[in-house]
Amino acid sequence: MKCKLISLGAIVVVLGGCSSLMMETVSKRAPFDLNCNAQSIAVHQLGTRTYGVSGCDKRATYVLQGPCAGPGSPCIAVMNSNIENIEEG
């Protein structure tokens, strides 16, 4: 039983690390595409490998390609929509 708990804990840590790597990958790409500083960008996970990004009155959707399995693993954020202008108000 103890081995199963340790294994489950290890899986949770690995998956949590993957999620933060994915979020970081999108967070690094989006400011360039939206022509917006990184501090103004908000990233929202929409699906397993899909993220919505908004900032500077614009938004876009990204899909991650590659294993995104951890540091050094290929993980590329690819825009999967047109950049959409959003109105404040």
Question: End-to-end span in angstroms?
Answer: 55 Å
Q: Return the average pLDDT rounded to an integer.
A: 84
Assess the beta-strand content as a share of residues. 25-35%
Rg (C-alpha, Å): 16 Å
Shape: elongated
Oligomer: single chain
Report on the biggest sheet.
Answer: 5 strands, antiparallel
**Secondary structure: helix percent:** 25-40%
Question: What structural class do the secondary elements suggest?
Answer: alpha+beta
Series of secondary-structure elements, N-terminal to C-terminal = HEEEEE
Q: How many domains is the backbone divided into?
A: 1
Count of alpha/pi helices? 1
What's the total number of strands?
5
Low-confidence stretches: 3-16
Give an overview in words.
Mean pLDDT is 84; it is low at 3-16. The protein has 1 helix and 5 strands. The protein has one domain (2-85). With 89 residues, the chain is of the alpha+beta class. Strand 2 (50-55) and strand 3 (58-65) form a beta hairpin.
Features:
89 residues, alpha+beta, 5-stranded antiparallel beta sheet, 5 strands, elongated, disordered N terminus
